[in-house]
Each structure stands twice: as C-alpha cells, then as structure tokens.
Amino acid sequence: MFKPAMAGIAGTLTNNLRIVLVETSHSGNIGAVARAMKNMGLQQLYLVRPNSFPDEVSYARSSGATDILDYARVVDSLEEAIGDATLVFGTSARGRKVPWPVMPPAEATAKAVEAAATAPVALVFGRENSGLTNDELQRCHYHIHIPSNPDYSSLNLAMAVQVIAYEVRMRFLEAQDLETHEKQSGMLDSLTGPGDPGWDVAAATVNEVEGLFEHLERTLERIEFHRRDNPRQLMTRLRRLFQRARLDQMEVNILRGVLSAVEKSAGGTIEQASDAEKKPQDQDNV
Length: 286
Fold this sequence. Notes:
Elements: H1 12-16, E1 17-22, H2 27-39, E2 44-48, H3 56-61, H4 66-70, E3 73-75, H5 78-82, E4 87-91, E5 102-103, H6 105-116, E6 121-125, H7 134-138, E7 142-144, H8 157-185, H9 206-222, H10 234-245, H11 249-265, H12 275-278
Helix pairs in contact: 2-8, 6-8, 9-11
C-alpha cells in the first residue's frame, strides 16, 4: 500500500524526484535499486507492473533499505507514474530514427535537480532485457545515455540506477553550495522558464501536455492535415517540439483555445474547454 511521502533526507528535492522502474522482471533488482537510492539520498520509488513485488527477495536484496520499499508505489501504467510530473527523463542505449534530445548523466541530472526544486520530476528505467519501448521513450522530454564501454555496454538495472543516483547526489550537493554562495553574494536567480523562481505560471504536467497532444491530433485530422492511416512522423515531431519548449499551464490553455477555435471554424465538435480557456484573457496577462 502506498503511504504518504516521508519527511527528511533532503526535503523538497527528494520528495519531488522519483525513480520509475517499468515492468521489472526480477524482484531482487527492485531491492538492489532501493539500496542504490538510499545510498544517494533518494526516496521516491514508483514500480510500473512489476513481475513480483513485494516479496522476500526484494527486501533481502535491499540490504536494509526497507523503508524505500515500504513506501514504493505500484501502478498499472507509465502514464500513472509520470502524469503529475513536469519533466521526465528516460534512460536509453539506442539511437532513434527520429532524434530525441539526449544528455549524458551529469547534464541530465543537473536539469533534473533544478526542476525538482519546485515540481515533480521522473527518472524512468526500462525492462532488464529490452529497456523502454519507443512509445515510452517518446513520453520523456529527454533521454539519458550512460557512456559505458562500447565493447561491453550492458548494465544491470541497479547499476544504471546507481550511476544516475550518484550524479543526482553530486548535482544536489553542488546546488546547495551554489545557493549558499548566491545568498552570500546577492546574485540574482536566472529566469528562463516554468519552474524558475519568479515565473508567473506553474509548469504544465505530463497529463496536461498529453491532453494538448490529443486535442492537436484530433484537430489536425479534422482539417485533413494529418491522417492516422498515413501518419508519417508528424505527431512524433510535434511531440518533440512541444516537449522541448517546456510549456506552462497558461500556454497549454492558450494553445487548446486556439485549437477549439480552429475546430469551430472547421465545423467540428469542440471539446469541453477548461476554466482558463473559457475566461477572456487580458492582453497583459497573456
């Protein structure tokens, strides 16, 4: 049973930064991942359709990190594990037909730690034998590639989590030092997008952006710009574009309002608008 998030370890950061394991086949790997997480001060573990959990093997392999397993959340889908997150990273060892933003661990975890200071962030790891599917990887804003030995590149699941968790720990410690230095020197925080201190609207969640994608695809079909029976790579490339843009909630509402107007002009059925879409927007606020 899922329990409320534990207090402590590193406060808001670790409450917002979660490790997500997809369809783990060996429960011992779940225990080893819990051990790796606790070593590096992480506590939020989500399990998508694990083959076996909880069981004695996972607890034995955790080597005392039983609290991580006690509070682990088991869910039925990746969408449920990342739906409320505003930034998602997926680990991948393969190149893609449509290139996706990819980062080495140090760069990816720096971005993850920064975002987790204000909103939920997910680090997603795939199956032991096949990793994440293409569809699952497209749900991620960025891919992380661990530059292992090309002649022997296979990493055990717990090893991969340990590498990323270590980098998270290092970025967290660096961020603490930087925050202390900025306070002492009076430096101003940068303001570049949702999640930064001072941005006026919260970052859009995965679920909110998925709603935009569904609305966009339906509208493009109705104006005969997109065909599901011959999709080519249109929606994949549009997904990559919008995820790279890191939309905030107001921007999602504005875009969906535009799509509703297009549907109305095309004679289609308009989806029920959100409260933000119904309210007339002040020019200065938009």
